[in-house]
Amino acid sequence: AGEDTEYRASPTVHWSMRKVLPMRLASALWGTVNDVHLPRALRRPIYMAWTNAFGVNLEEMERDLEEYENLGDFFSRHLRGGVREVDQSAPVVSPADARILAAGKIDSDGNMNPIKGVVYNVTDFLAPQTQRERAKIRELLGGRKGRSLQYAILYLAPGDYHGFHAAAEWKPERVRHVGGELLSVYPAFVRWFRTVFTDNERVILSGKWKGGYFSYGAVGATNVGNIRIEKVPDLRTNRVLGSGYVLSDNEIESEAFSKDDIVGFFRLGSSIVLIFESGDDFSFCVEPGQKVKVGEALGREVSE
Predict the structure, then answer these.
(1) CA 243, CA 198: separation in Å to the nearest integer?
(2) Which residue would you say has higher pLDDT here, 116 or 125?
């Protein structure tokens, strides 16, 4: 087969893989391991083994290695103050230390095309619960004059900093927890198993920013069932099997985010999906495969 051949799993294979590969069980067991208290003498050698395997930048950590009591504590470590600089001139910045999987406009049918041969529908991802919500999505896709619906998908690798931050100045109004699988979001797997982002468990914050609608999705993955949202401390993830069931859907009272405010943490690498309305003068300034850090520009408003 040539380089451009698109390999896709059939729906039958997809269903078989969900039954054969116990991803959620593995993730639950991994979560248990993450919470095991480590004797102080073992912390440095264990964390250094992980660091050497995945390239963790120890100089950016807020605390000394031996102060992280377990693996989960180490994976959800904070950065030292001042190690990330936020581009205040950019309306949308990177929410995480990550690799860009895709960024662009959502077409009039609501499709996002993160990898060649892979298409996700915005309605399937957002899982609207009312006719009013579905009508709002259709309105956004209808393309009001001078307006567009944009998306960006970012992949956090195991060695990356696992905090995720506000990508813009915006106000969340709703939080939705969609149950699902915990399949890998590694780019090669996403290319083959083409429903990962709409099958996987995810938490979606939605609200408004200066450009209109703004949503922020934190997607779970294998060994990353634990998604922590700072403004929703009682949220519990990695606890229900099945794909596409909305487990909770609530309004939230929250102050607006400023760029770089912490939104939450994964306990290992995973993905962030941004979907937002903008003027036609908005243009992404990143390319697929590009590495970005928290606060670096994702896009700018450009005048012709």
Answers:
(1) 8
(2) 125
